[in-house]
Structure formats: structure tokens, C-alpha cells
Amino acid sequence: MLELRGIIDAIWSFIVGLLAGLGIPQWAIELVGYALIAVVMFGVVAVIVLFLVWWERKVSAKMQDRLGPMRVGWHGIIQTIADAIKLLQKEDITPKAIDFPIHFWAPVVTFVAAFMVYVTVPFGKGLIVSDLSVGVLYIIAITTFTVIGLLMAGWGSNNKYSLLGGFRSAAQVVSYEVPLSLALLGVIMISQTLSLGTIVTQQDNLLKWYVWRQPLGFLIFWIAATAECNRTPFDLPEADSELVAGFVTEYSGMKFAMFFLAEFVNMFTASVVAVTLFFGGWMSPFGPDFGPSWMWFLGKTMFFVFVLMWFRWTYPRLRVDQLMGFAWKVLLPLAFLNILLTGLGIYLFDGLK
Amino acid sequence: MTEISLTNLTFYILSFCIIAGGIFTVSSRNLFHSAVFLVFTLFSVAGMFVMLNAYLLAAIQVLIYVGAVAMLMIFGVMLTTRLADVRLRHVNEQSWPALAICGFFLAFLVYGLWDTPFTVSGVPMPADTAHALGTLLMTKYVLPFEVVSLLLLAALVGAVVIAKKD
Amino acid sequence: MDQVPIGLNHYLMLSGVLFTVGIFGVLTRRNAIAVLMSTELMFNAANIALVAFSRFVTPAALTGQIVAMFTIIVAAAEATVALAIVLLIYRSFKGINVDRINFMKW
Amino acid sequence: MSEFAAVAVFLLVGTGIVLFTFLLAKIIRPSAPNPVKLETYECGETPYGTAELQYNVRFYIYALLFVIFDVEAIFLFPWALVYRSLGLFAFVEMVIFITILVFGLFYAWRKGVLKWF
Amino acid sequence: MLQNAWIIPALPLAATVLIIFGTHRNRAVSSGISIAAIVSGFIYAVAILFNVLHDHGPHEFYFKWLDFGSWHLQIGLLIDPLTAVMLLVVTIVSSCVQIYSLGYMHGDPRFSRYFAYISLFSFSMLGLVLSNNFAMIFIFWELVGLTSYLLIGFWFEKKSASDAGKKAFITTRAGDLGFIVGILITLYACGTLNFGEVFTKIETGVFAGGLLTAAGIFLFCGAVGKSAQFPLHVWLPDAMEGPTPVSALIHAATMVAAGVYLVARILTIYIASESAGMVVAVIGITTSFMAASIGLVQNDIKRVLAYSTVSQLGYMIMALGLGAYTAGTFHLMTHAFFKALLFLAAGSVIHAVHTNDMQEMGGLGKKMKITALTMFIASFSIAGIFPLSGFWSKDEIVASTSGHPIFMVLTLMVAFMTAFYMFRLCFLTFTGGPRDQHKFDHAHESPKTMTVPLMVLAFLAIFAGWVGIPWLSHGFSSFVYHGEPHHAAFHFDIAGISLFVGLSGIGLAYLMYYKGTISPDKVAARFRPLYTLLYNKYYFDEIYDAIFVQPLYAICDFWFWFDQHIIDGLVNGAATLTLWWSIAKNWFDVYIIDGAVNGAGYTIRGTGSILRFAQTGRLQNYALIIFAGVILIWFLR
């Protein structure tokens, strides 16, 4: 019962019946279906982000031995909602000298790029919008859009700091994207498939999780992923001490909120991908049917999000040259090494089909 | 309205996006705008690949063109264009003749393409092309595969030598 | 909405138009990078045509897609080197206005 | 083709919702532009000169390297997909492919291009 | 002895050469050489005379000079009684004149040059007399003409002298033209120039008819020119500009006699062709009558003598023309002596009073006894008074005109006029009161060197005639004859008439100028038109001037104008034409050729510059062009 899939199907069949009555053609219904799913997904994402914001503040407070937001609700639970509403009605100051269209569309691109990943993410058993056959590649492709968003934000706001910030963050994201994609290769070599659903189904129990066979791959992936989200050790661009707020200096109001939202979504996505590819996604350690699949999925991802938050208050911020050097001089060679090792490993142990 | 009309609709929408994007890329005054329109056009081309069931190629298109090449273009624009320059006249003086000639070219192209009888075979596309591409690449097109690595090396070294400021 | 299913000619028309737009961009833009962008457009037009051929003419053998893949890669390599050259020109001429770079003459 | 319908719809719905929120914000928020506020933000300083970046090629180098290795990654994906079914021969090819490009990386490294200072 | 006769002319030639190239600075030496040469020539001539006296026959010595293929030019000597006489006359007169010149030319700066010319003249005259063919005679003929020109124009600083020289030279040359035509005709007719051969041809009738007449007339032209006959006589009066001894030698005795000698030498022609002879005679008588009439009114003493010479020559020519060979040659000899004497006497008078005009003289007889006496003797001789030589020679001439009544009347009238003007001259100069006291006081008798030749010539003027006395057995007529020797028949009636005419002339002159009963002015007034006509020499000079000189000038002017305008015009025109042509060519060259060349260059440059625009250097332009090309090809496919 806990599998949400059944509930969703029931709801869906009701809706279909309703629309059919209205005489809307079949294909239109399908589209409406997808639209509904998209809206629902947006809602889920929004809720998760709100929770994450709150959780992050609580965790960071806990780590700094303080209480964090307590006043708004029980333990400040509705603090983020208050923030959201605040941002909604804050004045959006757009400077005169900016290149308005670029400035306006940058947050949209960034958020949409982050949001579109969840089309092919398997939240649970059957809980996948559409299991693309080129899933992994799709995810990597979509994440490159964030770079475009960054650059647009940087250039659009016509501000030296934002321009420089845009450049640096773009360079950083770009540098870490290569090891990220190479790390995933190991998994693909073993799973021989790009679709996330099948990868998860292949990891049906604890022992078959790919992390054991791809420890180096996972390590590289995880480090690259944190860099992708501009999280702590690699959060140089929008570090307060450095370039004001990096490429978001000129943004305020809802556009700023959108960037903020996109950042947390990226954080969540990173952990989702880590979980799906290396830790069996919605698979419980004991088999496919052991408890609600999405519960497992959310647990694992929340754990990895916690790890990200954990990184934030443990590691010192890297210098720019260390940051970049690390990507090219350490991660990339390791990634290649990983590929070779997995290649040999597959050849030696599993034998080739 | 059948399934086909849906695909027709999407095709026309996508082609409209591609053409409009192309025209804007070429004709927009602000260089950065044209870069962004380029990204939009490439994305729509990727969509077109999806229409043609070439999913892997679509992903590759998005990954390389949008992620790398377009990003490179934007980098180039940002590095070389002073903000003030962006407003300069962006079209040189031979735009009108060029327009005319391109018009003629298009007319001939269309005329040429329209009446050449391509042999269209009815065999449906295989669903998953990724694996097929992979095997094909590794077996039949090995040489180009290795040559591409050399090409990339050459491009890398060349670009580094040219761009490195010493 | 005409009921004719999307055939090969549609794609070829599309690629033709895109190609022409690309050529127009190459011929008229004053900025080197704009010219490079237009060439990218031309590459894509070619890819569409290739993939269309592979989809309609030889669905079994994916040669079209392979060639498209290779063109994409070559285009990428070409873009990097071209941009390196453009940056070099920018460094020496403080501007990449193609009109001023007119040394291809006797 | 139908798989990507979801992608398309997601794209449209996503942008739709974001634009909707912007519209909502535009309606709700007050707007009181005054010259000072509208100046580009210079930590309170009066902004001088255009936001022109003094030319340094390091950013471009990274982009360039990214393009080359991204293309390499692209080649690796199909190979990875069919690695198991192809056997040792494909593996040797890939080793050659990777060594050539690693040599490229090594060259870039030795040339001091990767140093950021 | 005879074949060495060429020594006679050689001696004066040697003298000339010696004087010119050697001793022209030393006056005495040069004059001495010249006189010695001529006197030795005289002695040799006398020897020849005696030689020829006893052997009349013509002696001919000649050798080939130039060989012209079929014909050869020969040079040689012909000695016969006529030659002997002429040699004698020339050498005697030349010696007397040269001795006389010592005194007359005493103060002249070009003293030795004068003697050189005189010797050269003697050489040419002697050569002429000795020559045996037409060519040789013509050569010496020209030499005589040359020397006469040199001597007439001796004082060339005087314009009148140089003009007279030129006039003489040109008029004689006109005559020589006819002479040479005549020679050519004879050459053409008889193929040889030798006298003997020509005369045999004439006698044999080979050379006869119109051709002979023509030859005769043309040859006679030479004589007309040289002996100052009717048409060509104008030069002789002007020739008086030369020194008086020259006039005496050349214009009295020798040169003018050359013409007569020539006619005598070739008389066979005129005997053979009656018409030619008649022409000669007519010319002769007209000349003598016309000259005598002019002589009546002349005031210049030398001009009177000149006209008398012309008239006497006319006598001789008329006689020869009528066939009287002995009469003509005999009068030639006697006339030479008394005419030379007259000239030399006039010379001493002029030397004394330094003027030629008789009106300024008068009463000189008292001052110059010898000159006056010799002058009177010569005048009586020329007038033809009984015992003197003039009487015998003139009588023969009048006798020769017996067959022709007109000629006889005219001859007698001329004799009357000759006597009249001779004594008019004598009375005006020597008798009566001195008209110019100043000159009269300075007048003095000439020195011995001048008076001795006068006396010698006076002696000859008296006794030379006696040679021709008819009754003498070996008289002149038997010595110098043409055809058969014949004795001159003396005609008392003719002699008487001529004597009476002479005396009447003398009487008239006596009345007009000595007694003054008839005043010459009144006579002149009555016959004013006749007087002015005669005084102006029948206006011959003016006529000739009008006929020849002015037309010549006119022609010259015309030709000058012609040359100036037409020829120069043509030349200049040609020059300008070529100038224009060159300009046109230059223009053509500059604009067309260069134009074309430069044009080509410019067009190439032009098209080059046009094409240059295609080279914009911008890739996009090239791409556009290429692309357009593709479409074009596609379109044209």
C-alpha cells in the first residue's frame, strides 16, 4: 500500500475518465497527464527544497553548537516558508546598465536546467516520469545548461564582480564536469545501460550496489558533484569574502530566490544521482520489496545531503589555483585510472558476456 | 487529431524554433544575444534529433554543442567584447547582395532537393540506437575513432600553443 | 494541418533553410565569433540532413548518425582552434572586427 | 520519441511556473527606482569604467580543455555501453585512445597551462 | 732659225715670271729685264723678217699637244710675211712703250707689277701672231683679253678704272663667244683646226655654203669684240682709264689690231663667201663713220684718240671685207706707228698738265716743243697728207673701195672728219692762249726717256709708208699678198681726191680753232641736236645699258625676287612644311603612339585599379563572390 504507484494510477484513471467525458482527444489527455506530473514534481521539489533549507540551517547551527531558527514554528520549521514569502514581496532592484533579457532569463535557465533532471530520476518502484534509455547521458547533458545559466547571469548584470564571479564559477563547474562524467563511466561499463531505472534494478541487494565495485568512481563522482554545486570546499565564486555574491550580486527579489532554489536543487540532484548509481537508488539493502521504495530512496539521499552540509562546516575553502589544479591534476587522472581498473576488473572477474 | 498530427505539430514547432533561432543568432545586434539564441537553436536541433529517434546523438549534441562549443563561444564573446562594443554595427556592407545570393541559393537548393527522388525505405528505426552505435563505432569505425583521438590531441596542443600568452 | 506525414523532404528543407541562414551569417557578420557561430549553424544543418537520411534512407545502418557524431566532434575541435586564433587576433588587434582583418590580399 | 515528450513538457511547465512566480513577485513587490539604487553594485563605491574584464586567457584554457575532454567522454560512453559485449579488442582500442589524450593532458600540465595564478 | 721663233714670245713670258716671283721689289731690275726681253725679241723679229723676205713661203712647225682619239689638238708656229710684219710691229711698239713707261710710271707704287703685265701682254700678242691653228689663236686671244683687263684696271683703286676693265673684259668676251662658235663650226665642218688644212678644204669646196658664211660671220664676231667694231666698240673709249702707255700699246697698235690680223689671216673664208665679206665691210664702214663723227665733239684728249682708233680700225676691216688684203694689212702697220706716237704724245701732255680735258689746255706748244712737233707730224700722217705713211695706206684703202661708190663716199667723209678732229685736238692743246694759267705755268717738257720713243715713232710715222710706194718693185704689196703677188696700182685721181679732202678738213679746223673765225660754240648751237647726239656718243652706252644692263638687272632682280620668294619660299615652305610635318608627326607620335602605349598602360592600370577593389582582403567578400559563382554555375548548368 505504501507503494505510491498504485495510488497515483488510481488518481490518474479517475482523471482520464473525467477528461474523456469532456471529449478531449486521447493524445491531449496524455499531454495533460504529463503536465500534471510536471506540476506535481515541481511541488515535490519545492517542498524538498524548503525542508532542505530549514534542515541546512538547523544542521549548521547544530555543528556550530547553536540552536538555529527556533522562533517561527516548532524549531523554526516554517522559517523557510516565511523567507520565501519575504523574497516574494521584496523589491526587485534591477540596475540600469544591465542587459535586461540576459539578466532576466539567467535564473530561469538555471532553475529549469536543475529541475529537468527529475524527469528520469527513479524515486521509487515505478515512480519514474519517463525512464529515458540515455538517462545518465541526459543528466550530464542537462547539468551543462547550468554553466550557460551562470555565464548569462555573470554577463547580464554588467558588474565587474558578477562577470568575474561568473567566469570563475563557470570554469570551476566546467573543470569538475569532466571527472564527473568519466566517473559515471565505470558504472555504465558494469551496468551496460544508461537508463537509471535498469541501473537501480540491477542493484537489487546490498552486495550488488555498484559502490563496492566502483569505490574510486564514487569518490571521484562525489567530490566532482560537490564542486558542481559550488558547495563548501569549492564554494569560492560566491564566497562572501571574495567576490561579493559572485554572479548573483545584481540579483534581488524573486530572481535571487530562484538562484538560491536552483542551488539546493542541484545539491539534491547530486545526492540523488550518487544514490541511484552507486547505492541502489530505491532498492532496500535487503531486496526489492522490503518496505516502501521511495522511503529508502529519500533516506539515502537525505543522508548524502547531510554529508554535503557536513562538508560545508568541516573543510576550509580552497584557493582558486588549488581548486582548479585539483580537478585537472588529481581527479581527471584518477578518473582515467578508474576506467582502466574497471575495464581490467570486468575482464578478469566477471568475464565478458 | 491523431498521433501523426501531434508529431507534425511538434516538427513544425521545432523547425520554427530552429529557423527563428538561427535567424536571430545571425541578425541580433547584441553578440551575447546571438550566442544565447545559438544555444537555443542547438537545443532545438537536439530536439529534432529526438524526433528522428537519434536519442544518443541528441544527448551528444546537447552535451558537446551546448555544453562545450556554445559555452566556448560565450567565453569568447565575454573575453573579446567590451560591453560598449556590443552595440557596434554588426553587419558589414555586403549584407544586401549576400541576402539576395542566399535567397537564390535557397531557391536552387529547395528546387534541387524537392524533385530528387530519394529512395525512402519503410523499415522502422531500431528503438535503442545507443548500443548499436557503440558496437558500430568500436568495430567498423575503429580507424576514425583513433584518428579522432589524434585530432583532439592536435587541437588541444594547437589551441594551447596559440592561446597561451607568454 | 495537412495530414502528410513528415517525410525526408521536410527535414531536407529545414536543413537547407538553416544552412542558408548559416551562410548568410558567415557572409554578413562583422564579428569573428559571430562568423564562428554561423558556421556552427551550418554544421547543425548538415547534421540534421545526415540524421534525416539515416532515419529515412538507411534505417538499418546508422552510418548517418555516426557521420553526424564525427562532424559534431570535428566541429568542436574546429571551434576550439578557431576561437584560439580569434583570441590571438584580439590580443594583437584589440578587436575582432573582421572588416579590419583584411590581410588576405595582395 | 514519446519518452522525450515528458522532457519537453517538463521544460515547458518548469519555465511556465518560474515565469508565473516572477509575474506574481512583480505584482506583489513595490517598485521605487531611484538613481542611486539603480547603479551597479560596487560595494557602495561609485562604479567606474565598464565592466570589462582585463584580458586573461586562463579562463579560455580551461574551457578549451573541457571541450577536448568532454568530447573524449562522449566517445567513452558508447564504448562503455558495449564494453562487455565487445571484449578485449575494444579495451585495447580504448587504452590507446585514452593514452593519447592523457598525453595531451600531460602536455598541457607540463606547459604550465593548468597553473592558476 | 725659223723653228725657234717660239723664243720671241718665250722671252717676255720669262721676264714676267722673273719679275713676279723674283725681283718685284727692285724696280730698276724688273724694268730692265722686261725691256731687255722685248728688245731682244725685236732683234730676233728683224732676223726673221730678213729670213722671210727671201723665202716667202709659209713655214709651219707644229707638234701634237692633246690627243682626243680620232682627233688631236696640235700646237705650232706659222711664219709667213704677214707674221713677220706683225712680229716687227708688235716688238717695235712694245719696246718704245716700255721705255716710255720708265718715265711715265716713275712714281707708281706698283711699278714692277706694271712691267710684269706689259711683258705678259707682249708674250700673249706675239704668241697670237705666231699661232697656226684656231685653238692656239683662241688661247692667246683670251690671254690678250686678260692682260688688257689687268692693264686697263691697273689703278684698280679708282672705281672708273676697275669698271672700265670689267666693261672691256665683258664686251670682248661677248665677241669671243661668237669666235668660239665659229671655231666649233669650222671644227665641225672640216674636222681640223689647222689654218692650212681649213683653207684647202674651203678651196676644194668641202667647207662651203651657208656653213662657211655662218663660220665667217661668227669668227668675225671675235674680231668685232677685240677690235672694238660697231656693236662692241663701247669698251675702247672707257679703256682710256688705264695708264697712257698701255693705251698706246694695246689700244692703238697691238691688241685692237689682233682682230684685223685674224680677219686677214682667214681672208680666204671671206673671199670664198661673198655675203660674209660684205657683212665685214659694212660693219667696218659703219664703225669708222660713227666713231669719226663722235670724235668731232669730244673734249677728252684720249677719248678723241680712242674714237679715231675705232674709226681707223673700221677702215681696215672694211678694206679686208672688200678683199683688199694688202691695203688692210699695210694700213694696220702704218696706223700702229702713228697712233702709238699720238697716244704717247698725249701721255706726255697729260703727264705735264695732269688733266685730260683739252678745254683746260692751250698754248702748250711753247712749253713742250718736241711733244708738239711729234704730235703735228702724227696728225699730218693720219690725215693722209702726201709724203707721210698715212697718205699711202689710206690711198690704198680708198682705192680698194673703187668698186663700191657708197663705200668710197663714206670713206672720204671719214677721212675729212679724221683730219678735222685731229687738228682740232692739236690746235686746242698746243696753240692759242692758255685757258688754265695755273696748269700752263707748271707745264714742262717730258724727260728724255719719254721724248726719245716719240722721236723714234715720229721717224717711223714718216718713213714706214714709203715701203708701200706703188712704184717700188719689191714693195709691200709684193711682200704681203693674198693669192698672187701683184703690184699696187697707183691711182692719181683717188690720191688727189683724198689729199684734197684731208687738206679741207685741216683748213676747217684751222679756221675754227686757230683763227677763231668760226666759233665752235655757234656751230654747236646751230646743230644742237646733232651736237648733243654726237657728244653723247649716240647714246650707245645708254642704249646698251637700256638693252642689256637694265634688262639684265631686271632679270637679275626678277631672279632675285624669284629666288627670294619662290625658291626661298619653296625652301622655307619646304622647311615649314617639314616643320609642320614634324609637329604633326610629333603630335601623332605623342598622342597616338604614346597615347596608344600610355593608353594601354593606363587602361591596364585602370582595370588594375578597378580590379584592385575586388581585392578587399576581407574573407567574407571573397566567400560571397565564390558563393555567387557557385550559384551562377548551378544556374547555367
List the helices and strands and how they pair.
The complex is a heteropentamer of chains A (353), B (166), C (106), D (117) and E (637).
Chain A: H1 4-22, H2 26-63, H3 79-88, H4 100-116, H5 135-156, H6 160-191, H7 196-202, H8 210-213, H9 215-228, H10 254-278, H11 293-314, H12 320-350
Chain C: H1 8-28, H2 32-56, H3 63-93
Helix pairs in contact in C: 1-2, 2-3
Chain D: H1 2-28, H2 35-38, H3 58-81, H4 83-86, H5 88-110
Helix pairs in contact in D: 3-5
What attributes does this structure have?
heteropentamer; B: 166 residues; mainly alpha; Four Helix Bundle (Hemerythrin (Met), subunit A); 75% helix; globular; D: 117 residues; Methane Monooxygenase Hydroxylase, Chain G, domain 1; 0% strand
Summarize the structure.
The complex is a heteropentamer of chains A (353), B (166), C (106), D (117) and E (637). With 353 residues, chain A is an all-alpha fold.
User: What structural class results from the helix and strand content of chain E?
Assistant: mainly alpha
Mass-distribution shape of chain E = elongated
Q: Strand portion of chain E, in percent?
A: under 5%
> How many runs of DSSP E, i.e. beta strands of chain E?
2
Contiguous uncertain segments of 5+ residues of chain C: none
Q: How many angstroms separate the termini of chain E?
A: 129 Å
The largest sheet of chain C is: none
If you had to describe this structure to a student in words, what would you say it looks like?
The complex is a heteropentamer of chains A (353), B (166), C (106), D (117) and E (637). Chain B is mainly α. Chain B has one domain (1-85, 128-166): NADH-ubiquinone/plastoquinone oxidoreductase chain 6, subunit NuoJ (Four Helix Bundle (Hemerythrin (Met), subunit A)), CATH 1.20.120. In chain B, 75% of the residues lie in helices and 0% in strands. In chain B, helix 1 (3-27) packs antiparallel against helix 2 (31-51) and helix 2 (31-51) runs antiparallel to helix 3. The mean pLDDT of chain B is 83. Chain C has 106 residues and is mainly alpha-helical. Chain C has one domain: Helix Hairpins (Orthogonal Bundle), CATH 1.10.287.3510. Chain C has helices at residues 8-28, 32-56, 63-93. The longest helix of chain C is centred in the C-terminal third of the chain and has 31 residues, at 63-93. Chain C starts with 7 loop residues before the first helix and ends in a 13-residue tail after the last helix. Chain E is mainly alpha-helical and 637 residues long. Helix content of chain E is 76%, strand content 3%. Chain E contains 26 helices and two strands. Chain E has a two-stranded antiparallel sheet with strand order 1-2. In chain E, helix 14 packs antiparallel against helix 18 (405-430) and helix 15 (325-353) runs antiparallel to helix 16 (369-383). Chain E is elongated and about 150 Å long. Chains in contact: A-B, A-D, B-C, B-D, B-E, C-D, C-E. Chains B and C meet through helix 1, helix 2, helix 3, helix 4 and helix 5 of B and helix 1, helix 2 and helix 3 of C.
